[in-house]
Batch of 2 targets.
Target 1
Amino acid sequence: MNPASNPGAQTLRTEALSKSFGSFAANSDVSLAFQPGARHALIGPNGAGKTTFINLLTGGLAPTAGKVWMGDTDITHLAQHERVKLGMTRTFQINTLFAGMTVLESVVLAVSERRGLQGVWYKTVASHQDVVDEAMALLATLKLTAEANTVTRSMAYGKQRLVEIALALATQPSILLLDEPAAGIPSAESKELFEVIAQLPRDVTVVFIEHDMGLVFRFADRITVMVGGKVLTEGTPAEISADPRVKEVYLGEAEHA
Ligand SMILES: Nc1ncnc2c1ncn2[C@@H]1O[C@H](COP(=O)(O)OP(=O)(O)OP(=O)(O)O)[C@@H](O)[C@H]1O
């Protein structure tokens, strides 16, 4: 992918990003960078501010202070759809429309939308063979080829999450943000889900929030630990697992529970 035509391929970073709800600081002075191609996990106890931070990245929330950069472009005040055009996207739960469609129909629709073919009835769109080919290639990436003609709603939750990721990838992102992708699915399925996520092409940077430390340490190559709305530390899985402050945070949490 050519970085000049896709600025999202450049480093996504934040500079002293803060978000308050009234007098409560959900994020304070968060300065982070996500290197292209990374599998970067955001971890931390409940209420640490991880989801708030992802929402600040996507434009779902406006920061109280600080900046968000994609390469040299200040995207702090861009709308969500403008950030998607720059290559940053997140998954959304399959809505009622997609739930009634087959996997292939859903992905064809998402690819058509990106290509500006929205509003064209599916059957007409399906006559564009290149759209169908692109959708099938995405299904192959997500190991969903065998399910192409299955109705999305009838699939196991883990597979539905993969369809949600296929829909996000249809926007051709260089940065994919995943907020607890394995939440609510059985552990055998979540391992499978992460195996597919880990094997996504390296021109897609993946930033994910995950509570299951087994999955985090198996699939992340970079980990940021947030506590109380701030970054406690960041490093490789080996550095994070050896950090006594991290152990303290999680031990403290366990004792509390
Ligand atoms: N819209 C809002 N209004 C007020 N407070 C909010 C709002 N959104 C989040 N908060 C608060 O900000 C804090 C951080 O929430 P956030 O969801 O970002 O944490 P998190 O690290 O993602 O937690 P979890 O792991 O439990 O999902 C929480 O105390 C939450 O109650």
Target 2
Amino acid sequence: MNVLTVDYRAPDAAARFTESLRTTGFGVLKNHPIPQELVESIYSEWLGFFDGEDKHQYAFDPAKQDGFFSTAISETAKGHTVKDIKEYFHIYPWGRIPPALSERALRYYELANALAAELLGWVEAHSPAEVKQRFSEPLSGMIAKSPCTLLRVLRYPPLSGNEPEGALRAAAHEDINLLTVLPAANEPGLQVKGSDGAWHDVPCDFGTLVINIGDMLQEASGGYYPSTSHRVVNPTGEGRFKSRISLPLFLHPRDEVVLSERYTARSYLDERLRELGVKM
Ligand SMILES: O=C(O)CCC(=O)C(=O)O
Ligand SMILES: [Fe+2]
């Protein structure tokens, strides 16, 4: 398992980054264009939000899927029975966002979206012809102006010691979407499963960006790009008393985008949300 950390400004960045995605499902970027002070201020203002009571006024809307998902209702990963130890807020530009937190979150949403479009261009340019011809349109076009792209602010609370047996911060899962952009979190814990079946720490130097393939890109590429299992393990030692904040942007194609002969983006997503138990 070799998740590469690639310098965004290096001349061979696109090729090396795409190679890392193809072999591991993950790639890490340093010297990327997302300002670290923006990420850090989002972490700190949302930590305050999760620590307060206001969040309960934003209870998630089962139809629209925006808003606050408490630890009591947060998802159970596909194939698992215990809930993850996490709470989170789903941000869509058209959805509810606490007014005091909206400016930075939306700025991040825009910047990370633009970077994701560029990275999808890298992926496409470095795909073999037989993979490229499966794409119903350019990958970057699939996400352009998509109202379905979701920014999730996640807060993994400190551990109380009363967690259910076997519960993890995030149980092993694959992401549903095309591509995920995830700034390194404020605490470690993210692991990816190798083809050897073992769990490996994803490089998480603060300031880097982690990018991973989701199921929709695996589907659209006929399996050429793997959507690999990953998880967030529980901290030990001093880390048990700390919250972990992370900020994945899940790049989702517009509903009508054709992923494969079997699925559009919408039909694929609906199937997966029903499996997660967060949609009827
Ligand atoms: O918190 C993390 O580092 C990863 C979160 C994740 O994998 C997810 O929400 O899909
Ligand atoms: Fe994930």
